[in-house]
Amino acid sequence: MGLARGRGRPRSEAADGRILEAALELLLDRGYDRFSVDEVAVRAGVAKTTLYRRWPTKDHLIVAVVARRQDAVPVEYSGDVRADLNRYLGAIVAGLHQMRQAGRPTTADDTSAGLVAEVAAAAARHADVGVAVRAMFHHRNALVLTLLERARASGELHADVEPEVLFDQLAGALYYRLLITGRPLDAAYIDRLVISALRGASA
Amino acid sequence: MGLARGRGRPRSEAADGRILEAALELLLDRGYDRFSVDEVAVRAGVAKTTLYRRWPTKDHLIVAVVARRQDAVPVEYSGDVRADLNRYLGAIVAGLHQMRQAGRPTTADDTSAGLVAEVAAAAARHADVGVAVRAMFHHRNALVLTLLERARASGELHADVEPEVLFDQLAGALYYRLLITGRPLDAAYIDRLVISALRGASA
Q1: Chain B nearest-CA residue for A148
Q2: CB 3.0 to 4.6 Å from B196: which of A14, A165, A202, B103, for a disulfide?
């Protein structure tokens, strides 16, 4: 290993992938409190030091897991922005529900935000985790902002629409229900939300 | 005290108010981590047991403090829904910034959600705190939903506007910026948000 580092071998993407897969599996199984970096090392078959060098705390590793999970959500403009937003927000909600229920029985019908709230609190508590979480959302949201820009360029949206403000209204409503009011998040709600945001309220 | 309880004396609203004032002051000064129920008892001049009987944990007391702070925000329909929403959301943002900076230097220019995230995490972690937080928002949001219903009845908003969905878009965007993306929350943003939500995006 000393030799390998001496040759300046780049970090293995495959090893990172294997570690993050193992970490996601453990996280969904255990939830935030009972998640353990050491156990991820055992499951992924790598040295603990490798993990800690790359992700110095449990919070850093969990943020990396969530970021990777979110990068898997496809974003593409089809020419029908309402359908595209319904599909995209549906994928976000599915991911949020999965994270929300991590480590809890799947029959749980409570409204706790679970891991989603723990990640938000970790981001607030540790400056570097906050930077990582905000970078993750910046990266992820860039894709849907591009979609909204394309819908605007095509004439489907008003020329003076601000994609970021519009997307705040959509994603914000989902996180607000999950983290704050505990109101239900389902496909029917997403459709009402998209209709409301696209149409506007003023008579 | 035994005698007073023996006569079935109702809980003193004045004492509750004094306790919650002392708790708010301590919370803003110290922040979440260094907030202490015992110290609130000392400052308010009441027995610790009185506090713990009413608010069994630190999280319960903090939620009561935040709820009381939020109840102070006025909500009234003036006939100009855009102005009313700007004013109301401005008051929410002022409260969020105050909570965000609790226990930290006022010169802090970081984007941490601070206490706001801690309350969301406490609500996710403890079922009864979650119930209390959701009840607080239900109570508080009922006022602004009534305002939106009145704006709809007056013809300022479309007849088929759903007040709850519209308010999710507004409040949601604020909490999303604070808790998730860390993007700035100021008066200019609030105005852009209200215009966007009232007007709609579809061409």
Answers
A1: B201
A2: A165
